[in-house]
Amino acid sequence: MKRTSWTVSSWVLALLLTLPIMALIYEALLPTEDVFRHLWGSVLPTYISNTFRLVVGVMLFSFLAGVPAAWLMAMCELPSKRYLQWALILPLAMPSYIVAFVYTDLLDFSGPVQSTLRHWFGWQSASDYYFPAIRTLGGAALVLGLVLFPYVYLLARTAFMEQSLSLVQSSRLLGCSPWQSFKRISLPLARPAIVVGLSLVAMETLAEFGTVNFFAVNTLTTAVYDTWLGYGSLNAAAKISAIMLLVVMLLLSLERMSRKRQQVFQKSLGQEQHSGYVLTGLTKWCALVFCWSLVLLGFLLPFVILCYHAIRYFDKAWNSRFFEYSLNSLLLSSVVAGLALMVALVLAMSHRLTGKTYTQIPKRLASMGYALPGAVLAIGVLVPLTSLDFAINDAALWLGLAEPGLVFTGTMAAIAFGYLVRFGAMAIGSVESSLGKVSPSLDMVSQTMGYRPSAIMMKVHVPLIRKGILAGVLLVFIECMKELPAALLLRPFNFQTLATYVYQFVSDEQLELGALPAIVIVLVGLIPLIFLNRSLEQTH
Amino acid sequence: MSTKLALSAAALLVASVAGQVVAEEVNVYSNRQDFLIKPIIDTFTEETGIDVNVVFLKDGMAERLEREGRLSPADLLLTVDISRLMEVVDKDLTQPVDSEILEKSVPAQYRDADGQWFALTTRARAIYTAKDRVGKRDDITYEELADPKYKGKICTRSGKHPYNVALISSMIDEHGEAETKTWLQGVKANLAQKPQGGDRDQIKAVNDGVCDYALGNSYYYGVMLSDEAQRETAEGVYINFPNQADRGTHVNISAVALAKHAKNKDAAVKLMEFLVSDEAQHLYASANHEYPVKDGVEPSELVKGWGDFAADKRPLVDIATHAKTAVQLVDDVKFDL
Hints:
The structure holds two protein chains of two kinds.
Chain A (H helix, E strand, L loop, with lengths): L2 H27 L5 H7 L2 H32 E2 L3 H7 L8 H12 L4 H10 L15 H26 L2 H9 L4 H30 L2 H5 L5 H11 L3 H25 L18 E2 L2 H32 L1 H4 L4 H33 L5 H7 L7 H25 L13 H24 L4 H9 L4 H12 L1 H17 L2 H6 L7 H10 L3 H28 L2
Parallel strand pairs in A: 1-2
Chain B lengths: L1 H17 L6 E6 L3 H15 L2 E6 L4 H8 L7 E5 L1 H9 L3 E2 L4 H6 L12 E13 L23 E2 L6 H14 L1 H14 L8 H10 L4 E5 H8 L2 H8 L1 E4 L10 E9 L5 H11 L2 H10 L3 E2 L8 H4 L11 H6 L1 H10 L5
Parallel strand pairs in B: 1-2, 1-3, 6-7
Antiparallel strand pairs in B: 3-9, 4-9, 5-7, 5-8, 5-9, 5-10
Helix pairs in contact in B: 2-12, 6-7, 6-15, 7-15
């Protein structure tokens, strides 16, 4: 393939993935009556400040939890590390609205924790004691942080592992303490990956609806849903979404600009055996408690509570079609993860081959879908796809054939496209941050040896950034397993994913009945997790 | 010519994949969870041999139908809440059904005069009171929830939830916008905690002493009472039907409508007519502890035990016209913040 064809395909892909957003921007430009003015005059300022505080809170938590955990797992020897390093990813497999439901249920005034405390101490009412209210912004930030920090962990760990050990060793030889060497070598080198992780966290938080709703925290996404469903104005909703997108783009490009002059490449493949710091004594115990409590709170505790409900309501909840739903989820998620990877590789390669700044644009464009609330994005997906459906049907009529019906929006195609638009950013970000660390001199060498771009990609880049690719694919896969609002709106007849099945119960305030299928989501998500983690370890 | 040939081939291929030929079937877009309607659907299929496919669409039914246009596979729309129903009707996504059975079975106030929609069940917006601290309150009204004597004693879910929006709309219909706003401010001032959770959480909160009064739909009480693990909580509260001395308790509906571009019209109407049969009405209503709309059909034993009540008789369509204003008022008084 020639350079120009790489560029052309990257633009085509990017534009394809941007279609839903363009549809929404078009909607946003239509008049919105006075809904917008009314919102601005009443609740919007509070929503904006809530959104800002929530995003900052969740990012801070994810950074403080994810980066140390990643460093410990990549660089240190710890007992139980074999389990910990993948257990720390587990919170991702848990849909956040389920974790939110579990924690609000547990810690509410009526929940078992406070009831037990009242029983023990003989307190009568809320005024007799202090207990932090869970349905608050702080509670939401904490719970979201617990389920989202693995993004940062996963990408940062990959980055730490890809780092050439010789750099760390040199810094140590030059007299750096482990902390200094971390601060001056490892952290700056891992910065692109950490930033990608944090931006995933931020965008996920921005687009989050179910969880913040449980916590009675109103954010901009609440405003998007309210204006759409309450005020019945999709235009105004699209307008708010567009503003959110703009802010995200702005922040991301600011970060990129700040990193512009910082170009670090790794000559080595980062595959030598890490000797690793061996932790002992108090440090060891602190590290262990730190990591395991993240696993405990982000995964084990909610999981155990789900199991409790599942066992109690097994007779009512068991459904012989779980197998079918699991297969649907598994198939859909795998297909989308594969597609996302291809998109990411093409976009990253075309930029790499030309090296021009403007070839960054397709990557940025294709990553925008992630910041949109799922249901709004789904509407954006419907617009171009139904137009395509109509074109096909009109063509069939013109040819004197029977109308084929909704070829795209009536089938799995719409859901898959929606997921790709929404989660492509994860694969793109992950591949990009890994590829950025591969020295261009390798490309030059390959070129002098007469390799064509596609061969360079397959023979040089892909093996080098295998971990980044795996991390990206894994993230996309797990997100697809859990994705809900887009699935609800785009799925065809007789097609349930595990998530949509669980949601029926959650939306009817009957999590007890949804606990069993929720466990299946987690377990099905674990299969590729374990598989991928094994191959991550093998290259190590 | 060759392009046309290629196109035909492609179209044929697509058609053979997408257009499966099936026996009689009905495609349903539903706001209601599959598990709630499955028993009724199964009975229908058993009796008629007609297959029913259901997609549960929580939000966005109108947008999806609108975009799908004449190609839409939807035959029947099952909705809950009057404003969501009116959205599909107002966007011209439904078509009238002329059926004597439907007209005879559904009282006039619970169906469209032109046959665009028919209610299937009603659900009352009740006020729950604490058994030990308040007792049964047959004389309670929505209006008095704003009385300062209830300061710190009231719980509710978000003011923007469709159930509360409909209630506020009915207040606007009765008292006008300005008075309703004052009422909302009063209720907000009386809240024991920020609006949060679902209707069941309100029952829990009353039982646990967070508040003494709570707004909630009648069927949640039924669901909790029939669940062993939650019965005790529900037994700590009374269900009260407000405004019995004047206009009656506010009720909302679940309803059915024929989609504008329904391809299986006959089968779909058959299903509609089945849904108002005595058997299905009872089944459908008791699946979620709601009230059947059809006169003479008894609600479930449990629901009957709560006693009869007078429902607000004003046309629901009138109430739905105030929905947007209601949401605006909720924002104006910052009810949820």
